[in-house]
Amino acid sequence: MIIIMEPNATKEQIDKVVKKMEEKGFKINLNYGDVMTVIAAIGDKRLMQPESIASFDGVRNVKLIQEPFKMAGRESKQEDTVIEFPNGVKIGGLEKSVIMAGPCSVEEDLDGLLRVAESVKKVGGQFIRGGAFKPRTSPYDFQGMEEKGLEYLAKARETTGLLVVTEVMDSLDVPLVAEYADVLQIGARNMQNFKLLKTVGKYNKPVMLKRGAAATIKEFLLAAEHIMHAGNHQVILCERGIKGIDSSYTRNTLDIAAIPIIKKYSHLPIIADPSHGTGRRYLIEPMSKAALVAGAHGLMIEVQHDPDNAYSDVAQSLNIEQFENMMQELNRLIGRLNYANHC
Amino acid sequence: MIIIMEPNATKEQIDKVVKKMEEKGFKINLNYGDVMTVIAAIGDKRLMQPESIASFDGVRNVKLIQEPFKMAGRESKQEDTVIEFPNGVKIGGLEKSVIMAGPCSVEEDLDGLLRVAESVKKVGGQFIRGGAFKPRTSPYDFQGMEEKGLEYLAKARETTGLLVVTEVMDSLDVPLVAEYADVLQIGARNMQNFKLLKTVGKYNKPVMLKRGAAATIKEFLLAAEHIMHAGNHQVILCERGIKGIDSSYTRNTLDIAAIPIIKKYSHLPIIADPSHGTGRRYLIEPMSKAALVAGAHGLMIEVQHDPDNAYSDVAQSLNIEQFENMMQELNRLIGRLNYANHC
Amino acid sequence: MIIIMEPNATKEQIDKVVKKMEEKGFKINLNYGDVMTVIAAIGDKRLMQPESIASFDGVRNVKLIQEPFKMAGRESKQEDTVIEFPNGVKIGGLEKSVIMAGPCSVEEDLDGLLRVAESVKKVGGQFIRGGAFKPRTSPYDFQGMEEKGLEYLAKARETTGLLVVTEVMDSLDVPLVAEYADVLQIGARNMQNFKLLKTVGKYNKPVMLKRGAAATIKEFLLAAEHIMHAGNHQVILCERGIKGIDSSYTRNTLDIAAIPIIKKYSHLPIIADPSHGTGRRYLIEPMSKAALVAGAHGLMIEVQHDPDNAYSDVAQSLNIEQFENMMQELNRLIGRLNYANHC
Amino acid sequence: MIIIMEPNATKEQIDKVVKKMEEKGFKINLNYGDVMTVIAAIGDKRLMQPESIASFDGVRNVKLIQEPFKMAGRESKQEDTVIEFPNGVKIGGLEKSVIMAGPCSVEEDLDGLLRVAESVKKVGGQFIRGGAFKPRTSPYDFQGMEEKGLEYLAKARETTGLLVVTEVMDSLDVPLVAEYADVLQIGARNMQNFKLLKTVGKYNKPVMLKRGAAATIKEFLLAAEHIMHAGNHQVILCERGIKGIDSSYTRNTLDIAAIPIIKKYSHLPIIADPSHGTGRRYLIEPMSKAALVAGAHGLMIEVQHDPDNAYSDVAQSLNIEQFENMMQELNRLIGRLNYANHC
Question: Strand pairing partners for A63?
Answer without folding.
Answer: A2
